[in-house]
Amino acid sequence: MAQIYIAFVDTPGLFAGVIRKVIRQKYIHVALSLDPFLEETYSIGRRHPSVPLIAGFEKEDKRRILRAFPDAEYMICSVECTPEQRMFIEERLKDAMENRFHYHYAVLGLPFILWNRPFYQKNHYTCSSFLAKLLEEAGICRWEKHFSLVTPKDFYEYPGKQKIFEGSLWELTESDTAEQGLKRAPVFHFARPAFAGTAYGSRAYISRGTYRGGHYER
């Protein structure tokens, strides 16, 4: 089996605060990554971390995000898939990246989420609706509602995920820099509460492994 990774993001700000109140959840943004360190991460989101009104499909740069939001917190979950499903996702992400300026944030669709009414405008998505549509087309996830109504909360409650990290973006970025030569991945102790962060002690690591095709091999 292969793996893909879903990053749940909690960032400060007025716009983020509004979304947080609507979905009643700490994490208000989701992104899809091909690796646990978020080096290959894509989403419908801000083109510039500090400018919320300019949004579309982009490859996320965690270091730029860290500079804009030093207090940002992340949760990373792995989702199992077949090698064929992962390849399908990689191809779709590559195509979306090549045509990224054709994708836009679905601002008009936000009220329809509150009204629980499906709404789709061509090439307009929220961060969660884009990811929901992609994973459904890949045959990984099945939703009991239209993809346009899927929110970050639905991904948070998705039973097929495994949490591997929760903590500050600074911690994730700095540990990645320090350990990149060893290719070590952060592992979260699954018995801990959902929002434990680093208060429950240091993280364990899978070390001396090699990253191949969406998973680590010793």
What does this structure look like?
The protein is α+β, with helices and mostly antiparallel strands. It has one domain: endopeptidase fold (from Nostoc punctiforme) (Alpha-Beta Complex). The chain is built from seven helices and twelve strands. It has helices at residues 14-23, 62-68, 83-98, 110-115, 127-137, 152-156, 169-179; strands at 2-10, 29-33, 41-48, 51-59, 73-81, 104-105, 124-125, 161-168, 185-187, 204-206, 210-212, 215-217. The strands form four sheets. It has a six-stranded antiparallel beta sheet. It has a two-stranded parallel ribbon with strand order 6-7. It has a two-stranded antiparallel ribbon with strand order 9-10. A hairpin with a 7-residue loop joins β2 and β3 (41-48). The longest helix has 16 residues, at 83-98. The radius of gyration is 17 Å and the shape is globular. The two termini are 15 Å apart.
What's the short version?
With 218 residues, this protein is of the alpha+beta class. Helix content is 30%, strand content 29%. Residues 178-218 have low confidence and may be disordered.
List the helices and strands and how they pair.
Layout (H helix, E strand, L loop, with lengths): L1 E9 L3 H10 L5 E5 L7 E8 L2 E9 L2 H7 L4 E9 L1 H16 L5 E2 L4 H6 L8 E2 L1 H11 L14 H5 L4 E8 H11 L5 E3 L16 E3 L3 E3 L2 E3 L1
Parallel strand pairs: 6-7
Antiparallel strand pairs: 1-2, 1-5, 2-3, 3-4, 5-8, 9-10, 11-12
